[in-house]
């Protein structure tokens, strides 16, 4: 047949009711064996495929998860999504995937559209603009499960899968100090982004523990844009007493920082050493290779999805939100390793 075969097509051809076809396909005992055989034979011949979505909606189940991330072009988010999909597939769920492009309004629309699409829960990493959380609080009021990863909102009592950003930044900053850096700048993300603030906290802790004064002029916040990183780096280099070390909140921004350093003919790491976060593939192909904090991206995705599905399938109502903090690893490369 030219169109997708429906139960009505089978019923019309066999001159029986739609209810009879439905019961035969579900192997209900009240259907005569010869009728069941005829239905199954025709369904096979016509390649009948049940409408899974319609069936699941009747049962109030779609087995679909909504995923919202800031930017699909980021290797970090793409890798986390791979983990999300692997866990979802293993447990019989599918994904509806959207990106916010770091815009609050787009995040709001994505949540609204996915909610109308009957997703059973959300895995979310917030946009850099998101401060108003009403759209997510509405999900909670409706009883729709929500799990955060990477970027979260501390005031929402939901499950979260994060890494130890404070500890990771502490280790990265200590590494620069151990390699002789005395004026370490921090190229941060927007002040509304918790992950950036946590890394800034770790940076400050390391400076304090090593007797280095925290200078506000060396801490600069900016949007997650490569051009902004270039601008901020030039600003830092124009200071009367410029930095000799640079912690950058993400690899993408670090590429901009290195570009600015090269434009000023500043030697890396001899004059300015650089460390960033996420350990994306570009770290190994740029010159110099970039030291970066690696995160267990696949585990972040898998764990976040497992928590979400556990909550979705908690028919007893005993599920309690869980916060998981995963470990990171500093990968040292040419951009920060000074010869002693």
From TrEMBL:
Sorted keywords for this record are: DNA-binding, Transcription, Transcription regulation
A single MF term (Gene Ontology): transcription cis-regulatory region binding
User: What are the HTH lacI-type domain coordinates in residue numbering?
Assistant: 5-59
Q: Where in this chain does the entry annotate a coiled-coil region?
A: none
- Looking at the record's lineage, which domain of life comes first? Bacteria
CDD domains per UniProt: HTH_LacI, PBP1_LacI_sugar_binding-like
Q: What is this protein called?
A: DNA-binding LacI/PurR family transcriptional regulator
Q: Which organism is it from?
A: Arcicella rosea
Mind giving the lineage of the organism this protein is from?
A: Bacteria, Pseudomonadati, Bacteroidota, Cytophagia, Cytophagales
């Amino acid at each position: 047949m030219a169109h997708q075969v429906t139960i009505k097509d089978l019923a019309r051809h066999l001159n029986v009711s739609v209810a009879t076809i439905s019961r035969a396909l579900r192997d209900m005992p009240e259907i005569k064996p010869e009728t069941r055989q005829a239905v199954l034979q025709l369904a096979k011949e016509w390649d009948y495929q049940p409408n899974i979505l319609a069936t699941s909606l009747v049962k109030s189940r779609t087995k679909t998860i909504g995923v919202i991330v800031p930017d699909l072009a980021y290797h970090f988010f793409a890798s986390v999504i791979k983990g999300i999909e692997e866990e979802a597939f293993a447990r019989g769920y599918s994904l509806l995937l959207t990106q916010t492009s770091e815009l609050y309004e787009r995040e709001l629309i994505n949540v609204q559209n996915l909610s109308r699409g009957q997703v059973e829960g959300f895995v979310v990493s917030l946009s850099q603009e998101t401060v108003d959380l009403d759209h997510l609080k509405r999900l909670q009021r409706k009883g729709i499960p929500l799990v955060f990863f990477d970027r979260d909102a501390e005031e929402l009592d939901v499950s979260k899968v994060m890494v130890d950003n404070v500890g990771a930044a502490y280790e990265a900053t200590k590494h620069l100090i151990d390699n002789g850096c005395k004026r370490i700048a921090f190229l941060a993300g927007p002040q509304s982004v918790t992950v950036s603030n946590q890394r800034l906290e770790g940076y400050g802790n390391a400076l304090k523990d090593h007797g280095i004064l925290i200078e506000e002029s060396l801490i600069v916040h900016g949007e997650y844009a490569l051009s902004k990183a270039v601008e901020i780096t030039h600003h830092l280099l124009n200071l009367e007493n410029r930095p000799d070390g640079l912690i950058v909140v993400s690899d993408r921004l670090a590429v901009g920082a290195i570009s600015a350093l090269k434009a000023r003919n500043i030697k890396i790491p001899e004059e300015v050493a650089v460390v960033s976060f996420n350990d994306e593939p570009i770290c190994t192909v740029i010159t110099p290779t970039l030291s970066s904090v690696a995160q267990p991206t696949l585990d972040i995705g898998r764990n976040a999805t497992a928590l979400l599905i556990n909550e979705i399938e908690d028919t007893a109502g005993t599920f309690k939100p869980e916060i998981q903090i995963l470990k990171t690893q500093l990968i040292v490369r040419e951009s920060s390793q000074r010869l002693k």
